[in-house]
UniProtKB/TrEMBL annotation:
This is Protein-serine/threonine kinase. The keyword Kinase applies. One of its GO terms (cellular component) is mitochondrial matrix. The keyword ATP-binding applies. It holds the Pfam family BCDHK_Adom3. GO terms for molecular function: ATP binding; pyruvate dehydrogenase (acetyl-transferring) kinase activity. It comes from Arcella intermedia. Its EC number is 2.7.11.-. The lineage of its organism: Eukaryota, Amoebozoa, Tubulinea, Elardia, Arcellinida.
């Protein structure tokens, strides 16, 4: 099977500099070659799943969605003009992105139904989900980037924000999480931002927003619930969540520190498992990652409740272009989360 060509944020930006019809056609031709390779690889990885998994209707639906996207792509004639791109390729890319928007939910439902039928020794859910979801992230970026080349916006090239501001992203996301906190708890911790507040770098702003939403949501919830426990008051005085923006020559680090009680030692080693959550579950819990994955769909749903995919998926978004997400916990006190992101734009995407 052919190997795919990894991209960097810099290579994506170069496609949109001095954009011309010739560059758009070249991008379309690259998409026509690259996306079928990636989809074929993902279809192959679905095909070699254990029979009991592939025979599940939800997993079969995932396979069908990918197969339809693959078939549509390879049936498009070679694009020679911008008009042909708009007529043939762009609608297919739009359908492919929209059609796979609920893939994570389908996978979760499918694995819930087969969880007790598969030995975790024979099927590594963690490796499969890491591969499948990082591949999905990469494909969606590629497709959306090409579509957005037709809709250029100031300080943007395709999906890449040339001046992505961590401070602005934190402000936007914190306004959402504090509103959620007010609605659920009637109180909210302050969020104090320090460091290089004016720093900007080329990045996909929606990815940063997703990560920050997950981290601030978790910090807000744990801060309120921990302070209620130790104070015995429904409306305790809340310590602030502190965020430090610290760019280096090549790596931007964002540290989020809270006094939310930290993470128990036995939970800390599980936080990157899909479906694991420290939220109270209905029914019994399990250390089997497949069973844990399934139980995440039985939780009490609320805007602040973790479904068990947020942290591992956030780490994949960070790792996509060479970053990482690291958590350090002081049990009984709080948690420090270190989000590192490449700020040069030159790191190639993960190519599983």
């Amino acid at each position: 099977m052919k190997k795919s060509t990894p991209h960097s944020l810099k290579s994506y930006c170069e496609e949109g500099v001095d954009l011309s019809p010739e560059k758009i056609v070249a991008s379309a031709n690259h998409i026509q070659q690259e996306l079928p390779i990636r989809l074929a690889r993902e279809l192959r990885n679905l095909e070699i799943l254990p029979f009991i998994v592939m025979s599940n209707p939800y997993i079969s639906q995932v396979y069908s969605l990918y197969q339809e996207a693959f078939t549509e792509l390879i049936e498009i004639p070679k694009i020679n003009t911008v008009e042909e791109d708009n007529q043939y390729l762009i609608p297919v890319l739009d359908r492919a992105v929209r059609g796979t928007v609920n893939i994570v939910e389908l996978l979760g439902k499918g694995f819930r139904e087969v969880a007790d039928k598969i030995s975790p020794d024979k099927f590594n859910i963690q490796d499969f989900m890491d591969y499948f979801l990082i591949s999905r992230i990469a494909r969606r970026v590629m497709a959306q980037h090409h579509v957005m080349l037709h809709h250029q916006r100031p300080k943007m090239i395709g999906v890449v924000s040339l001046e992505c501001s961590p401070k602005n992203s934190i402000d936007n996301i914190s306004s959402v999480t504090t509103e959620m906190s007010d609605r659920m708890y009637g109180i909210r911790p302050d969020i104090v931002i320090s460091g290089e507040l004016d720093f900007k770098f080329p990045f996909i702003a929606s990815h940063l927003d997703y990560i920050l939403m997950e981290l601030l949501k978790n910090s807000t919830r744990s801060t309120i619930e921990h302070q209620r426990r130790i104070s015995g008051r429904h409306f305790p005085d809340l310590p602030p969540i502190r965020i430090l923006i610290a760019p280096g020559p090549e790596i931007l680090t964002i540290r989020i520190s809270d006094a939310g009680g930290g993470i128990k030692a036995q939970d800390l080693e599980n936080i990157w498992k899909y479906g694991f959550t420290t939220m109270k579950r209905m029914g019994e819990t399990s250390t089997n990652p497949l069973a844990v994955l399934s139980s995440s769909f039985e939780e009490i749903h609320s805007p602040m409740a973790g479904l068990g995919f947020g942290l591992p998926l956030s780490r994949l978004y960070a790792k996509h272009f060479g970053g990482n997400l690291v958590i350090s916990s002081m049990e009984g006190h709080g948690t420090d989360v270190y989000l590192s992101l490449d700020c040069t734009g030159e790191v190639l995407e993960i190519n599983y």
